[in-house]
Amino acid sequence: MKIAAFFAFMAISTTSYATCWDEAAGYFNIDPRLLNAIAQVESGMKADAYNSNNNGSYDVGLMQINSSHFSRLKKLGVDEHVLVNDPCISVLVGASILSEMIGQYGYTWEAVGAYNAGMGEKRHDLRMKYAYRVWQRYQKLKER
């Protein structure tokens, strides 16, 4: 798992919060502004955000990491507490999840939508709706 190697790097790094975006984005080859736009849509940039979902799962932290990922993250020493209390780890995990979606859909807005809405044909409209919201934030960040 690519994220495990990055965790090893982060353990010896003296990364500041401001560079978390750039380091996670660089490691996974994703525009840091895109990660930031996702965080804006997901949590409103609130590191301690918590949201329940209709399917019984829940999302935590800056990047709103879904509880469906917790079992594999636990093997890396990351739990819900870490995701809420370490925004850099939340950004890293979010970048890893987005990277997986990019592996499935290519570097497309469909992949961005899958970050939130998941995969599957029946979820296409939800993916596009979410991707549009991220795209709007992303455009504003690109204008700065």
TrEMBL record:
Alphabetized UniProt keyword annotations: Signal
NCBIfam families noted in UniProt: PRK15328.1 (NF011856)
InterPro entries registered for this protein in UniProt: Lysozyme-like_dom_sf, Transglycosylase_SLT_dom_1
Protein name stated in the entry: Type III secretion system invasion protein IagB
CDD domains with a match to the protein in the record: LT_IagB-like
Organism of provenance: Limnobaculum xujianqingii
Record-annotated Transglycosylase SLT domain positions: 20-132
Pfam families given in the database record: SLT (PF01464)
Signal peptide stretch: 1-18
